[in-house]
């Protein structure tokens, strides 16, 4: 059993490592862990049926020595990439972005109808003045992240529950990379401020400290979104990024979903698009 367990986990980590970086957080002490890497739970979740099937067959045959090889072969054959990520960028003077793309009153109405209103520190109402927050900046860099699903993934995730789980897992995965990169850019350009593509994902869902009227546990890791400041994401996407927004419909994933982030700076950064290639 122990040998089978080791074979199975080695294969799992080998496979995950081939596709995407992962970490188990156990450091060098574990032979199966590779620090600095990150396990893509979206792929694991979406493909777990194949794993269970392979495990069952392996155990039933009582031939665990073949399990590792078989898992690798079968998953390589059966598992295609779940989604690909494509970034595009646009740059606009902040004064114009505010003039043509912001309608604070209208979007505050949408925020008030959301369960995160007054229940998450990265969402309205803010304890600071949003005008003061953006006033030091002159330029808005916009990042559109198109997450494209392959046909197999769309088919395998039909149904409200599966579809929702896939979107949530994808969002958390893509946001982890996006947000980290934006925070790195903030360090590189000190007179700057990032805007994340949606609400805060740092604490577990529904676990923001604001619900208990406590201060944010990690203000250095969270940023507001453009929409929470009243910017029109649909218009930003179609007119600045030339991407038509698509949504899940009746439990079916669309061909792609789009995440829109922002990076406000004092001066335009000509090399900004290069960071997203
Ligand atoms: S880090 Fe946690 S406490 Fe802070 S805004 Fe995000 S969810 Fe809330």
Core attributes:
binds iron/sulfur cluster, 277 residues, 2 domains, 4-stranded antiparallel sheet, alpha+beta, 9 helices
The gist of it:
The chain has helices at residues 2-19, 41-61, 67-78, 94-101, 104-112, 130-134, 151-156, 160-188, 233-240; strands at 83-93, 139-149, 192-195, 256-265.
Description of the structure:
The protein is α+β, with helices and mostly antiparallel strands. It has 2 domains: 77 residues, no CATH class; 194 residues, no CATH class. Helices cover 42% and strands 13% of the residues. It has a 4-stranded antiparallel sheet, with helices on both faces. The longest helix is centred in the middle third of the chain and has 29 residues. Iron/sulfur cluster binds next to loops.
Topology:
Elements lengths: L1 H18 L21 H21 L5 H12 L4 E11 H8 L2 H9 L17 H5 L4 E11 L1 H6 L3 H29 L3 E4 L37 H8 L15 E10 L12
Antiparallel strand pairs: 1-2, 2-4, 3-4
Helix pairs in contact: 1-3, 2-3, 2-8
Iron/sulfur cluster binds next to loops.
